[in-house]
Amino acid sequence: QVQLEESGGGLVQAGGSLRLSCTASGGTLTTYNLSWFRQAPGKEREFVAAIDWDGIKTYYEDSVKGRFTFSRNNAKNTAYLQMNGLRPEDTAVYYCAGDKTTVQSWFADDYDYWGQGTQVTVSS
């Protein structure tokens, strides 16, 4: 069973950039569609971006369009979320989620596999 792990979070000033990575152990990412969700304190987990298994189709939540880019390198068993123009409201724990059938969903329950999350904090 594949296990997902996120990395790359940290503290950055508003307007700065971070690149999150999602890697897999115990299996390959190749057959999984992937998404990023985020959860801020006191809020529900929300969809951020999605990419299909071969990296052809991507989807973004409106507030991150034009600022975030989701890509994947299946040969390296890694997916990346490049985040530019970060805002304080982007502060949250970011989670990588995977599923073999769901390509994009607003609902966290539609994904079978999750990482532990990585904290992103954007200061104003």
Tell me what you see in this structure.
The protein has 124 residues and is mostly beta strands. The strands form two sheets. Strands 2, 4, 5, 6, 9, 10 and 11 form a seven-stranded mixed sheet that branches. Strands 1-3-8-7 form a four-stranded antiparallel sheet, with no helix packed on it. A hairpin with a 6-residue loop joins strand 4 (33-39) and strand 5. The termini are far apart. It contains no helices and eleven strands. It is globular and about 40 Å long. It is 0% helix and 49% strand.
Helical content (DSSP H or I, runs of 4+): under 10%
Number of strands: 11
Specify Rg, calculated over alpha carbons.
13 Å
Distance between the termini: 40 Å
Topology, element by element:
Layout: E1 3-7, E2 10-13, E3 18-25, E4 33-39, E5 46-51, E6 58-60, E7 68-73, E8 78-83, E9 92-99, E10 113-114, E11 118-123
Parallel strand pairs: 2-11
Antiparallel strand pairs: 1-3, 3-8, 4-5, 4-9, 5-6, 7-8, 9-10, 9-11
